[in-house]
Design goal:
The chain is of the alpha+beta class and 664 residues long. It has 4 domains: 6-144, no CATH class; 163-233, no CATH class; 273-591, no CATH class; 602-663, OB fold (Dihydrolipoamide Acetyltransferase, E2P) (Beta Barrel). Helix content is 38%, strand content 23%. It is built from 19 helices and 25 strands. The strands form 7 sheets. Strands 9, 10, 11, 12, 15 and 16 form a 6-stranded mixed beta sheet that branches. The protein starts with 5 loop residues before the first strand and ends with a strand.
Length: 664
């Protein structure tokens, strides 16, 4: 169809342009547009063409005047169109496309002229919410599409408003000026926090980048410091905790469930297959900062033998499968402990309250009562739901002093624990103790590190009786040939040491030879512990695995079979492995962060390190004052061999960048 003399429309830089066709070929039009310019336009850019053809005898000035008048008429007509109303009618015909002429006639209520049609097309190009134009036809968006587009438009408007003032307000915030009256403050800081934590995976990364660029905050950690200045983050914010999306606070709706958990009353608990052990001389031994006590011990003489009780808080009594508290524990899987904070698996009203074995408080417990010979042989064992009351709440240093001063109970427990340890070593256990690295942070942010050896009498005592209770609990379940959650470990790739080696270099070498642990539904030997079957039940306040096993054991004790079938336990084991992988990574990253903060204080000074391995490309070290692993390139000047203690200089440390550089 010849277009010479037609008024056509096309778009240029977002504006509608009217033009007269002066000449044409098969692919392009030669035009005079309303701005007086001659244009060669590809046919593909043509949006509308008039039916009417104008005389080629019109002068250039006449053509220009006609085009400007036409443009003005169409702009005016656009204001008369009720686009939402037309869409309401058109959207009733789902999937049907319409001619622009039909919809223009519908919009104006009269026969559609060229100007009517062009004005309608302009409207749907300006407001793309209701219709889309394709190959000369118009299709109405579905109500769902309109809702989605409307939401997108609202977000775009929000972003435009944010960009218009955001950069300026961020500069003010960076310089310490108040921005409390800025309406978009919370939203802006939230999206910047997401960008810092998740980087390229953040939902609004492009907007965040643009905001920071305009504000001149382009340093790698400017957002981190900005959010601390704004009070959104704490100093030394645990970014890994945010990145791995570990839950911290408990939901408000959980509070009502927790409030319904009563303080234990002896009269209500006794007689429900629960023995009264309140008269026994129970004691706890824990770290000085511990607030959640989940295990206690006692010992009494039985002729030449000794009855030892390992009393574990009966968390299962309060936290039942299907309850909101149980579901939240399953989501968290473990308590997390950091130098600056603690994130409990259970709400504190339980973990530090009704479930905690607090001295002088009546508590429900599951007691592992073990009759031991003086040589540490297990003669008898009973698992008993009980009622207990702790008499002494001791820290490790306090227990250590009492052992030295002749306390009979603690000395007896210490002797028996040593016998238990030797028996495990004889069965192949690998005891590879590495000192605990205790990190403290004072109010000014100064970091101190102290190594607490794990092989002190009090720590070894507690560890051995927890291993005993866990082993006997695993045996209880295994003997009944029912499923549970069992920890297992195959023999190491190579045994370099026997049993209770204390040399740090030998321990590091042997640890590299260990095979990974497994979490299984049925028992299998655990070479590291030196037992035929193993689980953990002694920390149900802090570990979900222990809570699950406590439920399974209590159900078996009641004679009602198992609470969890094998397939259900397999699913729980998978969930435990998945969540703990994240939790342990956060724990490792946070531990390293604080050690690097500690080493920042030592920049420029020399420290001692254990030369762990001397390879052709890297030398592996462990800094002895904080047990942090580090690498160095090989040097001809280093004559030391693996196992030697060497001196290195701390040259550069940056905790936020996770950088540690040393030199000889």
């Amino acid at each position: 169809m010849a277009l010479q003399g037609a008024i056509i429309e096309y778009m240029e830089q977002g504006r509608f342009i009217c033009a007269m066709v002066v000449d044409e070929d098969s692919k392009r039009l030669r035009l005079l547009n309303q701005n007086g310019r001659e244009v060669n336009l590809p046919l593909s850019r043509l949006l509308h063409q008039s039916v009417k053809r104008h005389s080629p005898a019109l002068s250039g000035d006449e053509q220009l005047r006609l085009l400007k008048e036409t443009d003005q008429i169409r702009q005016t007509m656009m204001t008369q169109i009720d686009l939402p109303g037309i869409w309401q009618l058109a959207s009733e015909e789902e999937g049907v496309s319409f001619s622009p002429v039909f919809l223009a006639a519908l919009a104006f209520g009269e026969e559609a002229t060229d100007n009517h049609v062009a004005a309608f097309l302009r409207s749907i190009f300006v407001d793309r919410l209701y219709f889309k134009y394709r190959e000369g036809r118009v299709l109405a968006h579905t109500p769902e599409a309109v809702a989605g587009l409307r939401l997108k438009q609202e977000r775009e408007k929000e972003q435009e408003a944010l960009m218009s003032t955001g950069a300026m307000m961020l500069k003010c915030l960076w310089e310490g000026e108040s921005t409390e009256d800025w309406p978009e403050r919370g939203r802006c800081l939230s999206l910047l926090g997401d960008y810092y934590v998740f980087g390229s995976e953040a939902a609004e990364r492009e907007l965040a980048r643009e905001l920071l660029k305009k504000a001149g905050l382009t340093g790698p950690h400017d957002v981190y410091h900005l959010l601390i200045k704004a009070g959104v983050w704490q100093a030394h914010e645990n970014v890994a905790l945010l990145r791995y999306q570990i839950p911290v606070a408990f939901a408000e709706e959980l509070a009502s469930a927790v409030a319904q958990v009563p303080e234990p009353v002896a009269e209500e608990l006794i007689g429900r297959n629960r023995r009264d052990f309140r008269a026994l001389p129970l004691l706890t031994i824990d770290g000085e900062s511990t607030r959640d006590y989940d295990d206690a011990l006692h010992v009494e003489r039985r002729g030449d033998d000794f009855l030892v009780g390992v009393h574990i808080s009966d968390v299962a009594h309060y936290v039942a499968p299907g309850s909101p508290i149980y579901a939240e524990a399953a989501r968290r899987m473990t308590s997390l402990y950091f130098p600056e904070s603690q994130i409990p698996m259970l709400p504190r009203a339980l973990s530090e309250g009704v479930c905690s074995l607090i001295a002088g408080k009546v508590r429900a417990a599951l007691s592992v009562m073990v009759l031991l010979s003086p040589k540490g042989e297990v003669l008898e064992c009973d698992l008993i739901p009980s009622l207990v009351e702790v008499k002494r709440q001791l820290s490790y240093p306090e227990a250590e002093k009492l052992v030295a001063s002749g306390d009979w109970e603690l000395q007896t427990l210490a002797r028996l624990s040593e016998q238990l340890k030797q028996r495990r070593i004889e069965k192949g256990a690998l005891l590879l103790p590495v000192p605990d690295v205790n990190i403290s942070v004072d109010p000014e942010g100064r970091v101190t590190v102290a190594l607490a050896p794990v092989d002190t009498i009090s720590r070894s005592l507690v560890a051995e009786f927890m291993v005993l209770a866990n082993t006997l609990s695993a045996q209880f379940v295994a003997d009944r040939q029912v499923p549970g959650l069992f920890r297992a470990q195959d023999e190491p790739h190579q045994r370099l040491i026997a049993g209770g080696e204390k040399d740090l270099f030998s321990i590091f070498r042997q640890r590299k030879m260990l095979r990974p642990g497994e979490l299984l539904v049925y028992p299998k030997p655990h070479s590291g512990v030196g037992v035929m079957q193993y689980t953990t039940v002694t920390s149900p306040i802090r570990r979900f695995l222990d809570l699950v096993m406590q439920h399974q054991i209590k159900q078996l004790l009641s004679g009602r079979g198992v609470m969890f079938a094998a397939d259900e336990l397999a699913g729980i084991a998978g969930d435990i492995n998945t969540v703990l992988a994240k939790a342990n990574q956060v724990r490792r990253l946070r531990h390293r962060y604080w050690l690097l903060r500690y080493l920042e204080q030592k920049a420029g000074s020399r420290v001692e390190a254990l030369l762990v391995n001397k390879g052709p490309k890297r030398i592996n070290l462990t800094l002895l004052d904080c047990l942090l692993d580090a690498d160095l390139p090989p040097s001809q000047a280093v004559s030391g061999k693996a196992g030697d203690v060497v001196s290195v200089r701390v040259t550069k440390v940056d905790a936020l960048d996770n950088v540690l550089r040393l030199e000889w």
